[in-house]
Amino acid sequence: MIVIQIPDGKKVYCISDMHLGFPNASESRAREAQLVSWMDQIAHDASDLFLVGDLFDFWFEYREVVPKGFVRFLGKLASLADSGVRIHVFVGNHDLWMKDYFVTECNAQIYQTLTDFEFQFVHHSSRVCIGHGDGIGPGDYGYKLLKQVFTNPIAQFLFGFLHPDIGVRLAHFWSGTRKKSTISSGEVMFNSDTDYIVLAIKDRMLTDRLANKGIEAYVCGHRHHPVCIQLASDIHYYNLGDWFSQDFKHAYVLQIGAKGFDFVKFQPNY
Predict the structure, then answer these.
(1) In contact, 3 and 118? CB cutoff 8 Å
(2) Which of the residues in the chain have pLDDT under 70?
(3) What pLDDT score does 185 carry?
């Protein structure tokens, strides 16, 4: 359990699955502009910003190189960090290859797995479990096998020998093809009875309750469905949706403050 003190009047913000870089430079730039505008709006009362995976559609840190672009987002992230906002980055399935860039440039904390936090406000505490959610729960064995390959140190070492122009282009082609195929097949309705992240979280909740952890909320991304599910009388599951859906219809923000949890739809600034 990681304990974080929240100053009076401040909040914790959680977002996920921005997928910057998808599907092309112009659409990604427009999404980035909305993201930066939102970061400006929360700068006055944010104590901690949690980016819960898949910030980018692809991210690989070569020894001396990071992917081109996203300078407005990266600059704003650094600016928030310089102003005292604590940055927390969860590794997603599209940005598995994070190393020390965000640690060095934004003093960020990097997390690889579901992690428990206790946010200590002035008059109460909230305990929350946060993680991207990929690879947990039953099924999805094809992805789990791919993840083992992608996270293998030898595979990463060999990929690092590819020239960045080749490596990044291959990754964007593979990712974009999969997303376009998913989008063209139509939106899949969310079903809490079969969603593998929900099933995994329910199992974890039972274990956590037996251990008296006092977790009030489980927060994930990855599935691109913005949902809030009551798992028990005092426990909720949140999925943060995504930022590349048409007109940001799936983009949601979880705000954790002195008065509790607020799950709000992102409103673009057109």
Answers:
(1) yes
(2) 137-152, 155-165, 167-188
(3) 45
Smallest CA-to-CA distance from 119 within 44, 211, 215 is with: 215
C-alpha distances in Å from residue 1, one per residue of 15, 51, 91, 238: 21, 18, 19, 19
| pLDDT for res 270 | 77
pLDDT of residue 251: 97
Cα 194 from Cα 138, distance rounded (Å): 10
In three-state secondary structure terms, 99 is coil
Please, is 116 exposed, middle or buried when counting C-beta atoms within 10 Å of its C-beta (0-12, 13-18, 19+)? middle
CA distance 5 to 3: 7
85 CB-near residues (< 8 Å, 6+ apart): 43, 46, 47, 48, 49
Which uninterrupted H or E stretch holds 154?
A: helix 153-159
Q: What is the structure's pLDDT at 187?
A: 61
Ramachandran angles phi, psi of 253, nearest 5°:
-125, 130
> How many Cα atoms are found within 13 Å in the side-chain-facing hemisphere of 97?
26
**What is residue 69's predicted lDDT score, i.e. its pLDDT?**
86
Q: What is the DSSP letter of 109?
A: E
